[in-house]
Amino acid sequence: MFTGIVSAIGTLMVVRALGATPNSGLRLSITAPQDYLGGVALGDSIALNGACMTVAALDAANHRFEVDISGESLARTSGLDRPGRVNLELALRAGDRLGGHLVSGHVDGVGSIDWMRAAGESTEMVVLCPIELARFIAVKGSLVVNGVSLTVNRVDDRTDGCAVSINLIPHTLANTTLGELQAGSRVNLEVDLIARYVERLASAPRSPRGDM
Length: 212
Prior knowledge:
212 residues, mainly beta, Elongation Factor Tu (Ef-tu), domain 3, seven-stranded antiparallel beta sheet, globular
């Protein structure tokens, strides 16, 4: 589990194929800030741009770790197949403060940035979300964008999905990679965890006795 509060920005330095077929996964090598990996062990979970990954190799002395990402995960995420900066979050530990929202680290879909523009002291960002995720997104609910848990300000439904308006404060822009996004950028999305269960409860068939 995660909170959607990005704890560092890392750099995806090296991408190596794990096989020779088009569906093969990749081995990713990521450099983290100094001392960030001090409490990390092999097998621990770290979210990369909102996607939960398992540490497969660790070189804490050189602030570097590696993860394997499957072809299936590559097909369902964005930004993890090439070098670049990535948002990092260590897995939540029992007793940690829950400063954001409940986040699983399982990407539900890929959206795109419609536009970003100044809005007073903050920046308004509009994310285009696919139709299969639209029913989970509500005003004042949460939406995770590239691993950052954000509050939804407005939802405009469209025939192909919805446009979600979010305000980014200067602190968020300075401590995540969201400030690097521009119109057309693809982003990883995770919807509210509770909304998924509510939707399932509402749509699941009931037994003849009336219980679930």
